[in-house]
Design brief:
The chain is mainly β and 110 residues long. The protein is built from no helices and ten strands. It has a single domain, classed as 3-layer Sandwich (Rieske Iron-sulfur Protein), CATH 2.102.10. It is 0% helix and 41% strand. It binds FE2/S2 (inorganic) cluster (FES). The site of FE2/S2 (inorganic) cluster has 11 residues, from loops.
């Protein structure tokens, strides 16, 4: 278990936090957001093309605060499951990571 950030750094339906994980010995971008009070983390890679979702660091939600959105071609994702709700990768999903919130901090389960 590794600390990712403080709970206060992740806004409900707003700014998220990027962090890095290791996959097969290589660094891989990831992020955590808050939706409906709960934190959700994903690999920061669109299911359409392997680019980061946020052009502007931490901006993962669309204007409604209900969907995650890829800044490149506008694919939208459900924040709690990572399933693509619309756009060029409909039917696919972000890769979910397990995180827990405890004592005012967010931790990645590794
Ligand atoms: S790269 Fe994300 S929608 Fe195309």
């Amino acid at each position: 278990m590794r600390q990712v950030c403080r709970s206060a750094d992740v806004e409900e339906g707003g700014r998220g936090v990027r962090f890095e994980i290791q996959r097969d010995g290589e660094p891989l971008g990831a992020f955590v957001v808050r939706y409906d009070g709960l934190v959700h983390a994903y690999v920061n890679e669109c299911a359409h093309v392997a680019v980061q979702l946020d052009w502007n660091e931490g901006e993962f939600f669309d204007h409604s605060g209900l969907y995650l959105i890829c800044a490149t071609h506008g694919a939208t994702y459900l924040p709690d499951s990572g399933l693509c709700a619309g756009g060029p990768c409909k039917g696919r999903a972000l890769r979910k990571l397990e995180v827990v919130e405890r004592d005012g901090c967010i931790f990645l389960m590794e």
